[in-house]
Amino acid sequence: MSTSTIGPVNEAASAGAARALNLQVFLFLLGMVALWTVFCGVSHRAPDLDGMEELVWASSLELGYYKHPPVPSWFMHVLTQVFGRPVWLTFFAGQLFSALALWFIWRLGCEFTTPRKALMAMLIVSTSIYFSLRGTIYNHNTVQLWSIAAATWLFYRALRHQRASSWLWLGAVSAIATMTKYSAVIQFTAFLCFMLRQGSFKDARNLKGLALALAAYLVVISPHVYWLAIHSFQPLRYADSSLDASGYLDAFKHIVDFTLDQLARLSPMLAVWLAWAWWNRRKARRTVYAVDAHLERKKYYASELSAWDRSFLLWVGLTPFVSTVLVSALLGTRLVASWGTTFFILFGFYALWRLSGDERHTLRRIAIAAIAIHVLMAAGYAIGRGPLAWYTGRDTRSMFPGSIISQQMDAVWRQHVSQVPLTLIASDTWLGGNIAIHLGPEAQVFINGRYEESPWLDRATALDCGALLVYSRRTRGEPDAQLQRLFEQARWQGTASTPWSSEKSPLIDLNWGIIPPTGKCVRP
């Protein structure tokens, strides 16, 4: 072959290999979303509590909600406009954002190592409970995964390449992360610690870049800040109240429980690495040149990373967990396991300190182990939350008979109000949401009979077409005081019941009341 043709042939081969790897990444992420969505969609009769909350909040596009910032509800609003409100939608949405986060993690890895090694890290971290099992729970923690991963990638690129566009996108995406959940500031703290460690503030380019990022951040987040100001900072007060603990001893117990929970939720990642290590050792024993293979394995992938990149992975990756535990210990605050959802997005790269050998062989073994763990976890979760929960009569939310209850309450409504369809259910988010999503797209929930919790309703006209009031002590305990007061306006009242799942399951008590439509009711 002539020398003039070597360059183009090698470039074509490299381009073909890159396209093939991109396809592998896409197919894995697509398969992961499909796997978890199908297994959960088939096995569950109702979404998780947080998923139901988002389905209810998605009734309207608000700049904020009484408990949380608005971005997850915006995304869910768009999805419901396309798909309606089927039960499987929350599982699909959660996995969709989990997959998007993994894609950004892979892109980040491609910045400082080979695409194959980046894919290994992505595959390993994908098995952690936050990306797999809990990735099916559509809540603010899961939705925040993608924006934290994207912000981390953009932060790396901004520091490394000093492009104005990277700084601007960093600011914009960081604002979206904040409007998803305010805990995003923990990740920003990690960025700050790394910059201090590297002396980045001595470089005028970084100061200029930070100014651009801050400007973009303020532009994107300003409408939500305005909403917070006129609504007495409700979500911030809710977040503050959720941190309360009963003293330092209670806070210490929370720290221990939090740490143990995180280890359990990261354990599938260790299982992937152990499977690779066992496989690698088994193959080495069969190799004639076992000694040479052993020496080759000692050349761990992390040795190929620059000192700057290793520092980035350690400081940005470990700071969220370490800083959270330290703050909790100093201030005596409580910790909830799910708050650690975004803390470990870089932990897959730590396997590079222990992985070695031929990249293609290592990637194949890691992929087989990761896929096997995903399939086993998805199948086990579906069986446990579906058939097993049904036959044992457990009162799990996955087996909640939302469709049956919705039909019962609609029948009660039609017995008393025949001329106007049921479109408003005053109840708690869980019970009211289960009724509403099965009635149709027009049905809305009047959460606890409180307008401040139901911004999609107009105080002046909300009850014009009547409302069904319903609560269950079995599912929620005593009803909210405001909902009880609303019951006083009900013309008709009664009770009903239905089994939670199988005949072995407890009965769900349904206490209902009906406020009839007025002459002002205008049907769409």
Write out key terms for the chains shown.
mainly alpha, 2 domains, 19 helices, 63% helix, globular
Please state the structural category: mainly alpha
Order of helices and strands: HHHHHHHHHHHHHHHHEHEEHHEE
How far apart are the termini?
Answer: 75 Å
Strand order in the largest sheet: 2-1-3-5-4
Tell how many strands the DSSP assignment holds.
5
Residue share in β-strands: 5-15%
Radius of gyration from the alpha-carbon trace, in angstroms: 26 Å
Shape descriptor reads globular
Count of domain modules: 2
> Unreliable stretches, pLDDT < 50, 5 or more residues?
1-6, 288-297
Question: What is the arithmetic mean of pLDDT?
Answer: 92
Specify the biggest β-sheet: 5 strands, mixed
- Helix content range of the residues, please? 55-70%
Summed up, the helix count is: 19
Could you characterize what this model shows?
The protein folds into 2 domains: 18-154 and 251-385, no CATH class; 397-515, no CATH class. The radius of gyration is 26 Å and the shape is globular. It is mainly alpha-helical and 524 residues long. A 5-stranded mixed β-sheet has the order 2-1-3-5-4, with helices on both faces. Helix 17 links the parallel strand 1 (424-427) and strand 2. It is 63% helix and 6% strand. It has helices at residues 3-43, 49-57, 71-83, 88-112, 115-126, 140-161, 164-178, 184-198, 204-230, 234-241, 248-286, 290-297, 307-331, 359-385, 387-392, 402-416, 429-439, 473-476, 481-487, and strands spanning 424-427, 444-447, 467-471, 492-499, 507-515. It has 19 helices and 5 strands. Mean pLDDT is 92; it is low at 1-6 and 288-297. Helix 11 packs antiparallel against helix 13 (307-331) and helix 11 packs across helix 14 (359-385).
